[in-house]
């Protein structure tokens, strides 16, 4: 008899696995290394955008979508470099996951129809009011605390896993250094990636190593170390989500919807330097290469009002990060860029928005409307949010060994596992963080409980 059926290391997206397992009658222990994880981990810091392809919310909004359409978007964005079994499994479970989060966990989800993230063919990200991950995590955590079959041990760090017959022996370290061992039928590594580990970032992601890290401080790569000791295979370790819209003043995210609704990014010379709609993740390294590794998102009152749906954006406004001016000249003076350059950029964008030109000099075609006074600008920095590569898993989130066989009883999700963003930074689609975090945890729990085919370790 094991102490618990499922040990979950990491109370971010891993909580979806804990709740799903408990729903299936499993005894679950969740450990998290961070006392402040409800504010500090990546799920808490996120914008809470969760893709669900073919959800009832989409149907109600008259949006035709399917797992096949989503999978095609993933393949296009990653140029076919995403792990196919994982991408298919997540595309297929995404709508079920979103509806389960609403119906069984109690998340107040809605479809974000006003958001068009680069790479998604149709609106398919679902979110919570305020669009902040701390709200998402608070609901998950509260549901876990209420469930009789779930115990939470925080702060407590998983340091090692040892296969032990049909079970897994987990070594846990308490603050102060005491250790204890717990036996579990299965273990889910939901400890996120290695973004907070500067040495690993320099090694795998040199192009973004100098950027600001804006993710959970406990994302130190523990799953890589624990999994490697078990002989696990890793892949796509050069994959990451960057963002070119971290407010330099407020250190909160300036939503990329500022761009997708028609804004643009200029450098210290007041000039644009690429097609911002290629994606916010890949644009981080583009911004990092600009003078001073900084820039200004320029937009207007219409876009400002649309962006206030995001708590992070409102925080930037309250912190005084967003400048307002009645003319291009005044805005240029406020942000210390040459007025002539800024005027020229506004004119080119307006020409594309007004249909006088079909694209700008960088090939950008999408400018929703010409920017109109009063104008806005916010200074932004490039940031690394989280890493996307990790332990290779199968379609049940089982961790695979070097020879491709499942390692009995060991699962991984979220940043701990290989994601669906392929290689590098350009494969990241909005939602590629939370879907593997919540979705692989959900799939792992079902498999560990013997619900999906297999469950042979039990
Ligand atoms: C600003 C921002 C916005 C984002 N917006 C989105 C979005 O809208 N949509 C999207 O899909 N993705 C988004 N992401 C990415 C997304 O947040 C992450 O990909 C996802 O939350 C990762 O979930 P996780 O469960 O793997 O990690 P986390 O949520 O970080 O949870 C990991 C937990 O493990 C704990 N831990 C670490 N090591 C150990 C250990 N050894 N033992 C025990 N506990 C341990 C940590 O303390 C942490 O609480 C965003 C990220 C950021 C930074």
Summarize the structure.
The chain has helices at 14-23, 37-40, 42-45, 56-60, 67-78, 84-105, 133-146, 198-204, 222-229, 257-260, 282-288, 301-307, 311-318, 328-335, 339-353, 434-448, and strands at 4-9, 28-31, 50-51, 110-111, 125-127, 150-153, 157-164, 167-173, 179-189, 212-213, 234-235, 240-247, 264-266, 295-300, 322-325, 375-387, 390-391, 398-400, 406-412.
Detailed description of the structure:
- Helix 1 (about 15-25) runs parallel beside helix 7 (about 135-145) and helix 6 (about 85-105) packs across helix 16.
- The protein folds into 2 domains: about 5-240 and about 390-450, FAD/NAD(P)-binding domain; about 240-385, Alpha-Beta Complex (Flavocytochrome C3, Chain A, domain 1), CATH 3.90.700.10.
- The strands form 4 sheets. Strands 1, 2, 6, 7, 8, 9, 18 and 19 form an 8-stranded mixed sheet that branches. Strands 10, 12, 13, 14, 15 and 16 form a 6-stranded mixed sheet that branches.
- Residues about 455-458 have low confidence and may be disordered.
- It has helices spanning about 15-25, 35-40, 40-45, 55-60, 65-80, 85-105, 135-145, 200-205, 220-230, 255-260, 280-290, 300-305, 310-320, 330-335, 340-355, 435-450, and strands at about 5-10, 30, 50, 110, 125, 150-155, 155-165, 165-175, 180-190, 210-215, 235, 240-245, 265, 295-300, 320-325, 375-385, 390, 400, 405-410.
- The protein is about 35% helix and about 20% strand.
- The protein is of the alpha/beta class and about 450 residues long.
- The protein contains 16 helices and 19 strands.
- Bound molecules: flavin-adenine dinucleotide.
């Amino acid at each position: 008899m094991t102490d618990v059926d499922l040990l979950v290391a990491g109370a971010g997206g891993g909580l979806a696995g804990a709740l799903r397992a408990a729903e299936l009658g499993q005894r679950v222990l969740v450990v998290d290394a961070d006392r402040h994880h409800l504010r500090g981990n990546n799920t808490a810091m996120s914008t809470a955008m969760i893709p669900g392809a073919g959800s009832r919310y989409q149907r109600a909004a008259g949006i035709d979508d399917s797992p096949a359409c989503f999978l095609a978007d993933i393949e296009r964005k990653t140029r076919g470099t995403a792990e196919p079994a994982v991408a298919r499994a997540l595309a297929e479970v995404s709508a079920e996951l979103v509806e389960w989060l609403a119906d069984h966990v109690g998340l107040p989800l809605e479809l974000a129809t006003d958001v068009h993230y680069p790479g998604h063919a149709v609106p398919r990200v679902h979110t919570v009011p305020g669009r902040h991950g701390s709200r998402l995590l608070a609901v998950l955590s509260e549901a876990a605390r209420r469930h009789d079959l779930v115990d939470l041990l925080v702060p407590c760090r998983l340091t090692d896993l040892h296969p032990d017959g049909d079970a897994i022996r987990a070594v846990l370290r308490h603050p102060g250094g005491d250790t204890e061992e717990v036996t579990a039928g299965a273990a889910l590594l939901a400890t996120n990636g290695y973004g907070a580990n500067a040495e690993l970032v320099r090694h795998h992601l040199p192009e973004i190593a100098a950027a600001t890290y804006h993710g959970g401080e406990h994302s130190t790569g523990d799953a890589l170390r624990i999994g490697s000791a078990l002989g696990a295979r890793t892949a796509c370790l050069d994959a990451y989500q960057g963002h070119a819209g971290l407010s330099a003043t407020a250190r909160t995210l300036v939503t990329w919807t500022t761009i997708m609704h028609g804004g643009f990014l200029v450098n210290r010379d007041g000039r644009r330097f690429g097609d911002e709609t290629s994606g916010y993740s890949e644009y981080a390294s583009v911004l990092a290469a600009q003078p001073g590794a900084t820039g200004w998102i320029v937009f207007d009152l219409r876009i400002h009002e649309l962006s206030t749906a995001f708590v992070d954006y409102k925080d930037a406004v309250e912190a005084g990060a967003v400048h307002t001016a009645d003319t291009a000249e005044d805005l240029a003076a406020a942000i210390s860029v040459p007025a002539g350059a800024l005027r020229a950029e506004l004119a080119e964008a307006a020409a594309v928005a007004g249909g006088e030109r079909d694209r700008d000099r960088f090939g950008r075609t999408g400018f929703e409307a010409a920017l109109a006074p009063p104008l806005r600008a916010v200074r932004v920095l490039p940031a690394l949010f989280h890493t996307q590569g990790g332990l290779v898993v199968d379609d049940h989130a089982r961790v695979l060994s070097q020879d491709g066989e499942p390692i009995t009883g060991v699962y991984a999700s979220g940043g701990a596992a290989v994601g669906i963003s392929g290689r590098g930074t350009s494969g990241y689609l909005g939602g590629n963080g939370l879907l593997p975090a919540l979705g692989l945890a959900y799939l792992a729990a079902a498999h560990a409980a013997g619900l999906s085919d297999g469950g042979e370790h039990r």
